[in-house]
Amino acid sequence: MTDAQDTAADSSLRTTGGTPPDDAGSSVAGAPIPLLEPREGIPPVVVDEAALARVIAAFAAGSGPVAVDAERASGYRYGQRAYLVQLRREGAGTALIDPVACPDLSGLGEALAGVEWVLHAATQDLPCLREIGMTPSSLFDTELAGRLAGFPRVGLGAMVEGVLGFVLEKGHSAVDWSTRPLPEPWLRYAALDVELLVDLRDALEKELDRQGKLEWARQEFDAIASAPPAEPRKDPWRRTSGMHKVRRRRQLGVVRELWETRDRIAQKRDVSPGKVLSDTAIVEAALALPPNVHALAGLNGYGHRMGRRQLEQWQAAVDRAKALPDAALPQPGQPVTGPPPPRAWADKDPAAAARLSAARAAVSTLAEQLTMPQENLIAPDTVRRLCWEPPKVVDAETVGTALVGYGARPWQVEQVTPVLVAALSA
């Protein structure tokens, strides 16, 4: 048992019943222990510069990795901004920071420069943390570590229970974190999310080392930490749910116009776009091409709860799309920058289809042997691109070079090159 776990298991960490877990990397003896309260209680939320300065000083003086988490208000607010930031570090305790009241946390980010950040599902939180000035130079992702180590369930609650023997209360994960003031039960939940994150990191590091995968994990973590911010998605309106039903260009134009109108309104009101108008309603109007407000009101999603002014707003968007010249209408599908969809390979290039089938089977078998998901062993898109346009001479050097060009990490190249060479040569 680690020192931190020992502390967590004693009377200063309030739990109900049960016994402390065995060493973090081993199986847990007895029933899991409900984790009900942070060991130092719920810290006050930081809402002013003076309190933030004290937190920065405390965390700069702390030791070891820092656990970091962020809560967003997906489904309630526009965008993916952070509405609460939680941190915990040895010697500093736990801090809860309100990034609405303190929107610039670059000073905290600078204080933690060179410190390893421990996050769960890092790619989800890094964009909103970057917006407020917090970007790690190195990190440990406990969810990704769990995937590489072969855990069947990698949610934070499942990992903490299976590895450390504590049960986290997860009832507030989908609440509206933009609520002010935040209720105490929510703050307790938020503090507990970072309570044992460093302990989980230490246990997973031992398990990855035992399996010979620790260096693989480090390469993955470095890739996440060094990745540039994602580029804005081209034509985001094409991701409207139900788009597969929309075939004609005029209908596509209606989807685009309604989506963009909805997005402007949602951004102005700072609410989730789905609360303004559902994807289902957008597709319904695109398929029906209603001639007037009365016809629009009869469609799903535009019922009696919607006022006349709102109906006119949506009908105006439909009318704008209907008035567009043909040349201004969107084309079906998106520009193809890579291979065609695999379902079309058999007709377009039967040899490529055979290569892909062999490569997928080989990767699947290897992933099972290594006890990890196929997509973590090698990106499916990388396999498709390699099979669609293989090197003219297929050998370990050319395949390895191609994999590197597609962004594969060294450990992935080492593991999959032999099986892909065999599949491409069959």
UniProtKB/TrEMBL annotation:
In this chain the HRDC domain maps to: 248-328
Where are the residues of the annotated region Disordered? 1-32
Please name the Gene3D superfamilies in this protein's record. HRDC domain (1.10.150.80), Ribonuclease H-like superfamily/Ribonuclease H (3.30.420.10)
The UniProt regions of compositional bias labelled Polar residues, in chain numbering, are 1-18
* InterPro entries given in the database record: 3'-5'_exonuclease_dom, Exo_C, HRDC-like_sf, HRDC_dom, HRDC_dom_sf, RNase_D-like, RNaseH-like_sf, RNaseH_sf
**Top-level taxon in the UniProt lineage:** Bacteria
Protein's recorded name:
Ribonuclease D
Instruction: Name the source organism.
Output: Streptomyces hyaluromycini
